[in-house]
Amino acid sequence: MKKQQPIIVGIDIRDLKLAVTGTKTYLKELINAFEKIADPEIKYVYLDTQLPVYGGGSKFFKGMEHVYYFIWKQILLPFKTWQNNCTVLFCTDYFVPLLQPGFKTITVFHDALFFEIPEQYNPVWLKIFKMLAMPGAKKSAHIVVPSHFSKERLHHFTKIALEKFVTVYEGPKTIVERKSVSEKLNQIIDNIQGVQFILHVGSLDKRKNIPRLIRAVKLLKHRGHQDLKLVLVGKASPKIFINNEAEILATIEEQGMKDQVIVTGYLEDEELGTLYRMATAYLFPSLYEGFGIPMVEAFQFQLPIAAANNSCLPEIGGDAALYFDPLQEEAMANSIELLINDASLRKELAEKGTKRLTHFSWNNAALELNQLFKQTAELN
């Protein structure tokens, strides 16, 4: 009996060269999980570009990057997919080629932010999104989303059939702590040693709601929590419409919180693991999330969480977090105070988080996607 040939799945890995977090984490973790599973019915082909990839701040080179991106997505990627005899092309960054000769596409939409908060995007990029990403999504066999919340919102805005969206939960990043500590991490540890501190991980974007978090910690200082500190891990976004670094630094200054708020900038995952382990609690005050990987990372380190009561966060956190109105600084402060004052509550939430974590793993995500690849390959 003739052995059945594996389905060839092309995966666009260009973002490994450009992204720092987000889609880069998604790609890296999935590729690792695909390799571990080693499904004999599927052969993965990793498709990459030889064109320059630019992630800096120059307007000219950013313009050229858009041109290179268009050439890659709409000309070179479909050619490479066809050349490698791929049955399915998987793209994790919203965009798939409009030309799909002999193969089917699956795209990933990580959230509905393009629709929910359009003012935080470059108008030119929004036009490109509407001209290319949306028609590509409509041609795709499936659209993968990270939460049921994202599915409902994207269906609402795009009017694409609900059954075309497939929810595949993500997992925490693989974080292995270093045995040796870098000088940068040593300085941070010196600042937080022996005191309670609240951790927040994420780029310094407007939707992350960090100025309100700083003011909430200031309220706690007035209530007598003089030693409580806030550690903000993450760097400023290169996208000027999203970047909120200036307001965050100004808020720290205005509130007289330079001794209480530590802005670390970008940290390697291995350094970040140390802070997850040392923190008293994790705060997630975001105004909008499509999934929220730091929440499941906190579960992984048995760190209790207080989070905003909006978007996907209650869906992902379940009963393993406290929730607050992110527009109310006093409500945020009350949640933080509950966590830092009540060790038994912290223990209870950490235990619930460990149980909750069983719903979120890259291994599960890879298994679900493999099934989706097989279903897509069988479509007429």
What features would you describe in this structure?
With 380 residues, the chain is α/β, with parallel strands linked by helices. It has two domains: 7-171 and 361-377, Glycogen Phosphorylase B (Rossmann fold); 183-359, Rossmann fold (3-Layer(aba) Sandwich). It is 46% helix and 14% strand. It is built from 15 helices and twelve strands. It has helices spanning 15-18, 23-37, 59-83, 113-116, 123-139, 148-158, 183-192, 210-222, 245-254, 269-278, 293-300, 313-317, 329-341, 343-356, 362-377, and strands spanning 7-12, 42-47, 88-91, 104-108, 142-145, 165-167, 197-201, 229-233, 261-265, 281-284, 305-308, 321-324. The strands form two sheets. The protein has a six-stranded parallel β-sheet, with helices on both faces. Strand 7, helix 8 and strand 8 form a beta-alpha-beta unit. Helix 2 (23-37) crosses helix 15 and helix 8 (210-222) packs across helix 13 (329-341). The radius of gyration is 22 Å and the shape is globular. The model has no long low-confidence stretch (mean pLDDT 93).
